Amino acid sequence: MKGPLFYSKILLFGEYGIIKDSKGLSIPYNFYNGALKTDGLQSEISIKSNSNLKRFVEYLKEISPELVTFDLATLKNDLDAGMYFDSSIPQGYGVGSSGALVAAIYDKYAYDKITVLENLTREKLLTLKNIFSEMESFFHGKSSGLDPLNSYLSIPILINSKDNIEATGIPSQRSDGTGAVFLLDSGIIGETAPMVSIFMENMKQEGFRKMLKNQFIKHTDACVDDFLKGDFKSLFLNTKKLSKVALNHFKPMIPLQFHELWKNGLDTNDYYLKLCGSGGGGYILGFTEDIEKARQSLKDYKLEVVYNF
Predict the structure, then answer these.
(1) Is the confidence at residue 287, as pLDDT, over 80?
(2) Which H helix or E strand runs over 289?
(3) pTM, 2 dp
(4) I need a surface site. Which of 7, 28, 231, 242 has the fewest CB within 10 A?
């Protein structure tokens, strides 16, 4: 047995800001995917996945039945028969490994599920987001529910505010475009929960809250608007501002050995870096007007182009 594929995602803009109602833009990233599978537990990874899923079932029992109910008996039987989540999505990299798993479980075992084929009203999207937020909290301690939502629907999601999300279209890629969004592999696994704790601790300081509202969220919102309009000239100006604010105020989320690289991008304008997800490791997101120049500047690192314009 092999279930349908669920893809990884990239939150282009909105990391941390969406906790405090900034805009956000999340896009599917089809390079990585995962699916539920039963073909005998033949590897250490599949055995570990199977036992994690068994713990997840216990957690699902606790979710309010008013929000969502699952066919737990079938799920339990499938797990006893050796089902696991077979995934190429790297864990701790900010591209939604737990999101794809949550989407797969909801898709196969939820009763009265909202399907991708329905007319996805704002209300239905919010309901899905709330369900996914509860489900994914098992993995992160606190989840917005956006990663599973993106993975489940496999379409770009625009976050206007916490209670206002919509499916959206993004400008078509230009295969000959020199501008690009890319992923830079930090080579370190990031942990979401400790990074979110640092952020929440910082939020207790008035100065940090002010900076978040007047700079971080302001630039994030501008980047989302620019990207959706296809105004890439303005996008680069605003991404530079966002990159600078992140370097000044989100240092703990940026692995130490990348501080210099981050600053170098701001100084040379060859590329601008930003957090991909919660940071602390995993991928770092990069924006450049000239991908060849960026490749040259970052020649010691592995770049994966996500989007060309």
Answers:
(1) yes
(2) none
(3) 0.89
(4) 231
Phi, psi of 159 (to 5 degrees): -100, 115
Looking at residues 263-276, what average pLDDT do you find? 97
C-beta separation of 167 from 120 below 8 A: yes
Buried b (16+ CB within 10 A) or exposed e, 160-196: beeeebeebebeeeeeeeebbbbbbebeeebbbeebb
Q: Of 305, 279, 55, which is closest to residue 177 (Cα–Cα)?
A: 305
Nearest to 93 by CA among 167, 31, 166: 31
Name the E strands within 180-275: 180-185, 272-275
Q: What is the DSSP letter of 258?
A: G
Hey, what domains does the chain have and what are their CATH numbers? 6-167 (3.30.230), 180-308 (3.30.70.890)
Reduced to 3 states (helix: H, G, I; strand: E, B; else coil), residue 190 is coil
Kindly compute the dihedral angle of the four CA atoms of residues 173, 175, 179, 181, in this order, to the nearest 10 degrees.
Answer: 60
What is the SS3 assignment for 250? coil
Q: How far are the Cα atoms of 56, 189, 272 from residue 33, in angstroms, in the given order?
A: 20, 18, 27
290: exposed, middle or buried (Cβ count in 10 Å: 0-12, 13-18, 19+): middle
pLDDT band at 1 (very low <50, low <70, confident <90, very high): low
pLDDT of 119 > 90? The answer is: no
